[in-house]
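Section 3.1: Structural characterization of target chains.
Under the original work plan, the team committed to producing a structural model for every single-chain target entering the pipeline before any wet-lab resources were allocated. The record below documents one such target. The sequence was received from the expression subgroup and is listed exactly as submitted; it comprises 138 residues.
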Amino acid sequence: MDDTALQAAQPRDKPYKIHPGRRGVYLIVTPKGAKYWRYDLRRRGMHTTLSLGVFPETSLEDALAERDRIHAMAVMGIHPSVARRAARQGATLGCAGAAFALALSPDGELSVTVGEHILHLTRPQTDAIRSVLLACRS
């Protein structure tokens, strides 16, 4: 399924979902014609529905990239909703029982704090680490 097919989706009396065939990602079409990307994350007993953006501002490819980013965070034990809230507030995240904290900035840069040491990663470095983590889970 491509963006053209999604653009052609018409509103109905009740909201409905369009599944583009990608794990957990779907588009909700409302009766007023608004279209929202959603992702149902299921991981280790956690079930959360997360917003990925508004269609067409957020394309299918963008929604899938966001899904991959969210999934990578879940694999590391970071709840995506908590991470989003912390990023908005500029706060840091600590994994349960870990001696480190993670902070993801709104522009995609990651900071890792271990004790008094802080490692700042640029967006390309963060993306590279994400790619490695995603490859390891396969």
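Residues 1-59 form a domain with the Double Stranded RNA Binding Domain fold (CATH 3.30.160.390).
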